[in-house]
Amino acid sequence: MLTAAVAFTLTAAGVAVAGLTAYRRRYLAATRWFAVALLPAGLYLTGLFPVARTIGGEIADWATQLVFDPRVWIGIALLALSAALLLGSRRVARRRLKAAAPASGAAGAGPARPAVTGARPPAGGSAKAPGRPEQAASADDGLGDFADIEEILRKRGI
């Protein structure tokens, strides 16, 4: 009986807060408050409060065993070791891939992926960019935005 009184009191308080929030024209926040306010009554009417009490008791028992039982600490250590081995092996595999990539590139095998250029041709199929003269479009060898930098370097003789 006390559980019902607490559940419906919490629901009534939540509905009141939702009403005050809606009065301030904050309808989205009011909807959230109303949704949360319905939870205690819904849990009571479906009979889930005893389930929540059981789950809470089991979590408390587990936490007590966690503190006082060395067997649980050994299990936690094994889980941590497993996670460290998985992450470490992944890191080593990535390092090997990075170390193998320059070695294969030096042998003349070429890049594994095609180079990505900065600009795509327009949908019409023309490679000429709008606003650029014909010379600049023909001199552009896939560098896209680096054409201006290349021109500055060429002027300085670098």
Give your account of this protein's structure.
The protein is mainly α. It contains six helices and no strands. Helix 1 packs antiparallel against helix 2 (27-46).
Overall geometric form: flat
Mean pLDDT over the residues:
80
User: Radius of gyration, Cα only, in angstroms?
Assistant: 33 Å
Largest sheet: none
Quaternary structure annotation: single chain
What share of residues are in beta strands?
A: under 5%
Number of helices: 6
Terminal CA distance reads 88 Å
- Give helix % range: over 70%
Number of strands: 0
State the secondary-structure class: mainly alpha
Succession of helices and strands: HHHHHH
Spans of 5+ residues with little confidence (pLDDT < 50)?
A: none
Give a quick set of tags describing it.
flat; 158 residues; single chain
Topology:
Elements: H1 2-23, H2 27-46, H3 49-68, H4 70-106, H5 134-139, H6 147-156
What is the structure about, briefly put?
With 158 residues, this protein is mostly helical. The chain is 73% helix and 0% strand.
